[in-house]
Amino acid sequence: MVKDSNRLKVLGSRHSFSDIADSNYNHISLNKLNSIIAIDKESKTVDIQAGMNYGELSPILHQSGYALHNLASLPHISIAGACATATHGSGINNRNLPSAVSSIEFVDSTGELNSLSRTKHKEKFDGIIVGLGGFGVVTKLSLNLEETYNVR
């Protein structure tokens, strides 16, 4: 579908105050790609499908003894969408939400599956993560985890 479409937009949760997601392009929804692939306790990372939102992920992580360093303000926000738009989360001392991403998989405009990691692809990683979907359709993210904590 990606390769055969010259105008394609991925829809996230569509929580936007602008009309950036409104277009006459072909649209693709990742809502059904909303599962955890794996939690790696050794590396403290979680691999998720790109349609997962914070409200789906957070309770599962909590039950496993983990959390993300920061969250979107609303539970229905898609994680891939929040990362693609550099959503800030909360707290003046917290990094933005895409800073939790350690690796990404996406299908580019030629239909090829690409895998990049923050450690191996430093020169282009941040631009791909916060690329507004311009580099392709994100299919998987790996996120860094912290041990569960209480907010005071």
From TrEMBL:
Organism encoding this protein: marine metagenome
Domain annotation FAD-binding PCMH-type: ranges: 1-148
Transmembrane segments: none
Alphabetized InterPro entries for the sequence: FAD-bd_PCMH, FAD-bd_PCMH-like_sf, FAD-bd_PCMH_sub1, FAD-bd_PCMH_sub2, FAD_lactone_oxidase-like, Oxid_FAD_bind_N
Lineage: unclassified sequences, metagenomes, ecological metagenomes
PROSITE patterns cross-referenced by the UniProt entry: FAD_PCMH (PS51387)
Protein's name in the database: FAD-binding PCMH-type domain-containing protein
Single GO MF descriptor: FAD binding
